[in-house]
Amino acid sequence: MNDENKNNPNRSDHMEDIFSSNTIPPIEPEKPEQGQIPTPDVAPTTAFIPQQTQPIPDQMQPTTQIPPVNPPYPPINQPSQPYTTNMVPPTMGYSPEGMPLQTPGAIPPPPPKKPLSSKAKKGIIFGSIGGGVLIIVAIILCIVLLGGGKKFDLGKYYMISVQGMNGNATAEVITNDSITDTELMKDLGLKSNQYSELVNYAGFFQSVSAELSKTEGISNGDTIEATLTYDEDLAEELHIKIKNSKLSLQVKGLKDGTKIDVFEDLQVTFTGIAPKGEVEIVNNSTDDFVSDIYFSADKTSGLSNGDVVTITANYDKYQAQDELLVVTQETKEFTVEGLSEYLTSAEQITDEVRAALDNKAKEAVNASLAESWSTYYEKFSDKYYYSTNKISVSDPVISTQSLLVGKDPEGYYWDGYNRLIYIYQVTIDISSDSTFGDKPDGPKTGYIAVALSDICILNGEVVVDNVEKPSPYGDCSTNNVTLIDELINANKVEYNVIDIKPAA
Fold first, then answer.
1. How many CB atoms lie within 10 A of CB 102?
2. Any bridge partners for residue 273, and if so which?
3. Residue 340: beta bridge partners?
4. Mean pLDDT score of the chain, rounded to an integer?
5. Which residues pair with 389 in a beta bridge?
6. Which residue has the higher pLDDT, 210 or 96?
7. Distance CA 31, CA 73 (A)
């Protein structure tokens, strides 16, 4: 700190210097008695010590010398005796190096030459009030009731502050800084030699808090009440007697604000396929205040039609108050709609949906049979035939039908999020002109599997992303149990299996 500001009584940390300094202010010497040689003026912080003076033991040396007071005898500048234990200057909880704390009977420092400034009251205790939180920012709260039991009006030193717009204002309790030094000293009954007791009361005033009857949504005409509370045990221990701890204020003079709908130009779009839908939010506002608002959704993915998404406007409330803007709503609900849906249940399979799916599966089976009827016959009979001729291929009939749905709606599935597996029964009969090998011995019956994957439904219409055309080299068997185990049961770890009853 600059020396030129150190002794300025108007600076905010003036009281801190008074309480933290290890230097006792000089005491004016009394007039010498008649016939006594007066002591000349000496600088307030140092004293000249002649060489012949006996040195002071290390354990008794003060940190700073002071001029002698009423020296009992000549010569001039004869030093006084060093400090004793009970002459240590008062401190804020610590002592100079090597010296104990002040003990009872210590000589108190002289009174200040000037009254405390308003800035000097603001430095020791900090707390917070607003919606039940108190801000104590005045040193005056640390020096209350040093008069030994004098009743103190606690409510006089606080006030309720209401700020904001009519209908949307907020309240908090703040320190009443209008109290003058004269009023303060009168209320406290302080004596000028009681500075060393200030630190004893800091804990009590740090315990002070406030509870308000209303903190938000305040309008003109409302009456706001506040109750100040404190550590009663500590108050009793310190002999602090509180006269009043209630505050009341009737609100008036609040200005009306301008209402604004921050969602007016917000574009909310739902994309993807349910139940894996997503939400997109675009702020299209050109208003300076609204365009800076960040909008967030409570759920951004894994959406299905009918889900409700809550979007919150995150804005600077202090800026809104400064600009007298009233946000009519901070959250808004949007219902998910318009998404195509993955086939995930049997209930979604209406007659129209069933017909569309059955046709796609049967077309795939018939296409494969048309190309590979002889190979299917050989798989069904477990023999190889030369120079075969098709006699007949029956109409495929659904034997079993199962819907596989991924267990994690937001997960990725290589074979598709859903799979509708058909197992058809078919009978094939062939002939052979070859003189080599075995001759066909009549019709053979077997089973062929076909899978439709990533099936979606939108407004009753079916969209199938992939139709897995069956192959005689892997998707057929002489019994359907083998195909069920390989294509359905083996996938139960990743998929939920739903049995679908064929149409009557």
1. 18
2. 340
3. 273
4. 75
5. 431
6. 210
7. 14
Provide the pLDDT for residue 456: 95
SS3 481: helix
3-state SS class at 130 = coil
For the CA atoms of 222, 227, 228, 231, the dihedral, rounded to the nearest 10 degrees, stands at -160
Distance (Å, whole) CA 337 – CA 6: 71
Q: Helix, strand, or coil here: 424?
A: strand
Q: What contacts 77, CB < 8 A, 6 or more positions away? A: 39, 40, 42, 47, 48, 50, 68
Radius of gyration of the CA atoms of the chain, in A: 47
Quickly list H helices, 273-408: 317-322, 351-381
Question: How far is residue 294 from each of residues 211, 257, 313, 332, measured CA to CA in Å?
Answer: 33, 22, 6, 14
Joined together, the tokens standing for residue 452 give 């439709």
pLDDT at 58: 40
Which of 393, 413, 416, 401 is closest to 360 using CA atoms?
401
Q: Is 284 helix (H, G, I), strand (E, B) or coil?
A: coil
d(CA 116, CA 100): 29
Written as six digits, the tokens of 426 are 């078919």
Distance between CA atoms of 399 and 415, rounded to whole angstroms? 23
Q: What is the 3-state secondary structure (H, E, C) of 143-174?
A: CCCCCCCCEEEHHHHEEEEEECECCCEEEEEE
Instruction: Report pLDDT digits (tens) over 17-58.
Output: 333 333 333 434 444 444 443 444 433 333 333 333 344 334
Residues 242, 141 contacting (CB under 8 angstroms) = no
Cis bond leading into 75, ω under 30°? yes
Instruction: Answer yes or no: pTM beyond 0.70.
Output: no
- Cβ–Cβ under 8 Å, residues 280 and 287: no
Do the Cβ atoms of 378 and 372 come closer than 8 Å? no
- CA dihedral for 200, 206, 207, 209, sign (positive or negative): positive
Task: Say what percent of the chain tops pLDDT 90.
Answer: 52
Give phi and psi for 465, each to the nearest 5. Answer: -70, -35
Helices marked H in 276-428: 317-322, 351-381
Instruction: Tell me the pLDDT tens digit for each residue of 65-97.
Output: 223 323 332 332 323 333 222 222 222 333 333
- What per-residue confidence (pLDDT) applies to 199? 66
Residue 116, sorted as left (phi over 0), alpha (psi -120 to 50) or beta, turns out to be: beta
φ and ψ at 395, to 5 degrees?
-70, 125
What does the alpha-carbon distance between residue 264 and residue 272 come to, in Å, rounded to a whole number? Answer: 25
- Residue 484 structure tokens: 């069920």
> How far, in whole angstroms, is CA 359 from its chain's centroid?
55
Show Cβ contacts of residue 131 under 8 Å, excluding neighbours closer than 6 positions: 170, 172, 212, 215, 216
> How far apart, in whole angstroms, are the C-alpha atoms of residue 425 and residue 31?
130
Token output for 142: 């640390």
Whether 7 has a pLDDT exceeding 90, the answer reads no
**Residue pair 71/39 in contact by the 8 Å Cβ criterion:** yes
| 3-class secondary structure, 489 | helix
